[in-house]
Each structure stands twice: as C-alpha cells, then as structure tokens.
Amino acid sequence: MWLYLIAISISHNFLAPLIFSPLPSDFTDNRSRWKRNFACLREPQGRERKGWMIMVHDLSGSPVAAASMVTPFVPSPGSDRVSRSNPGAWLILRPNGDTMNSWKPWGRLKAWRERGPVDALGYKFELVIDINSGIPIAESRLSVKKGGQFCIDYQVMKDSGLSSRLPGEGFVMGSSVKGEGKVSKPIVQVGSHHVTCMADAALFVALSAAIDLSMDACRLFSHKLRKELCHEDQISSFIIDNCLK
C-alpha cells in the first residue's frame, strides 16, 4: 500500500495537523470495495494511461472525497505527448449520501503537456454545474522540470478576465507540485472562508493529488513512469484528520 502524505493548511498562517494512520481493519478483507486500480500500461505496449483513482478517507476509514481519471491520457497522433486539443481529465468527487457507492461531481480537471520554449504541464480546472458545463476557476501551467505552485485565486481569475461567473472572492487554495518523476509530499493551503467542514477540505486534497499525478500522466510516452505507479495492485490513499473544529 502506498500512502500519499499531505499536510493541509487552513488559511495562510495556520498549519493544521493531519494524522496518518492505518486504514480500517476490514480493508484487506474487503479489498474489492476499497481498491482502485492504479493502472500502469507498460510502454511501449500501452499507449494510454487510464483508470487512476485517488481516495481520501477520514480517520474512521470512510471516504470523504475522491478523484477519478475519467478521460484517459493518450498521446496525440504522431506524437508522444498529451496535447491541449485532447487532454486527459479527472472528476473530483464528493459522496452523495452515506454510501461509498454513490458520488457526485464537484470539479473537473483537464491536463496536457504544453509545447513551447518551456516544457510545461498545462491545466484547467472548473466547478461542475452539470454533466456538460462548468465554471472555469483556474487555468495555467507548471514547469515540468521544477514543478511549482498550483493555485486557485478568484481575484487573479477576475483580473485576467478568464471568468465572469466566479462563485466567490479571494484566495481559495494552493498546493505544491514537484517536477516530473519526483515523489511529492504536498502542502495544501485552503482559504478558511472556503471551508466549512472536513469534507470541503478533503475535496481540495483530492484536487491537489490529481494535479500532482497529472505531471506523471502527461509524461512523454517515450519515457517510462516512475516505479511507484507501475504496480497493478497499487493503492493511493489519504487519511485526513478532522482538524476543522
């Protein structure tokens, strides 16, 4: 089992602790319920990266958020890179009721490999309104070599004129992203006025993990993925403490 470690900061100046503890005792016995297939189609045989999923659990083992790769990451014809015209995509999900079999979409993240003088991961994130529409709230790029800071800030979006339907104001979240091929231990910062409960914070954790793994999903198909992502039995999980009291 691979535990993806994250610390989360509520507002800009308070670092709230996360407790990373074992998954519930029934995890092994009920693996088919909990497991996500962290598929790595081995190059050169595989020409798509698909089926990745991230689960965020509270300390009782209950899922509180998830990110599911709903559009495979595939190279554009005649190329070994994921293009902006055909990006891969994740849905960021929250539970729909008390069962883990029912989820509803909260956001959609699209990612691709930018062409140009700077090798970069391009991304666009939008809040889901319905299955066919959403409100874009973040769009930018991150250096593939150095990584950077994934950030959602409504004021930046308003100033850039990229969206006129933003549902709030000010800083929303930020998370650190390592460069390609590096294992991240992100610090996630969340604006306190955008979080009312632990489940809200968990959505931002799932989103930060999705953007981080998009760096791997957009890796050139002429290169192999790092070994942590190349085991079919791999599980990527987060344990989040209820630190919003």
Structural description of this entry:
The chain is mainly β and about 240 residues long. It has one domain (about 1-20, about 35-240). It is about 15% helix and about 35% strand. The strands form two sheets. The protein has an eight-stranded mixed β-sheet with strand order 1-13-4-5-6-7-8-9, covered by helices on one side. A five-stranded mixed β-sheet has the order 3-2-12-11-10. A hairpin with a 2-residue loop joins β8 (about 120-130) and β9. The model is unreliable at about 1-45 and about 240-245 (pLDDT under 50).
Strand and helix layout:
Layout: E1 2-3, E2 7-10, E3 15-16, H1 31-34, E4 53-58, E5 63-71, E6 88-95, E7 103-114, E8 120-130, E9 133-143, E10 148-153, H2 154-160, E11 171-177, E12 187-190, H3 198-217, E13 236-240
Parallel strand pairs: 1-13, 2-12, 4-13
Antiparallel strand pairs: 2-3, 4-5, 5-6, 6-7, 7-8, 8-9, 10-11, 11-12
The major pleated sheet works out as: 8 strands, mixed
Number of domains: 1
Radius of gyration: 17 Å
User: How many angstroms does the end-to-end distance come to?
Assistant: 30 Å
- SSE ordering: EEEHEEEEEEEHEEHE
Q: Which strands sit side by side, in order, in the main sheet?
A: 1-13-4-5-6-7-8-9
Oligomer category: single chain
Helix content: 10-25%
> What is the number of E strands?
13
Structural class from helices and strands?
mainly beta
What form results from the Cα inertia axes?
globular
Contiguous runs where pLDDT drops below 50 for at least 5 residues: 1-45, 241-245
The count of helical stretches stands at 3
Classify the beta-strand content into a percent band.
35-45%
Mean pLDDT: 75
InterPro entries: DUF1005
Signal peptide: 1-16
Keywords: Signal
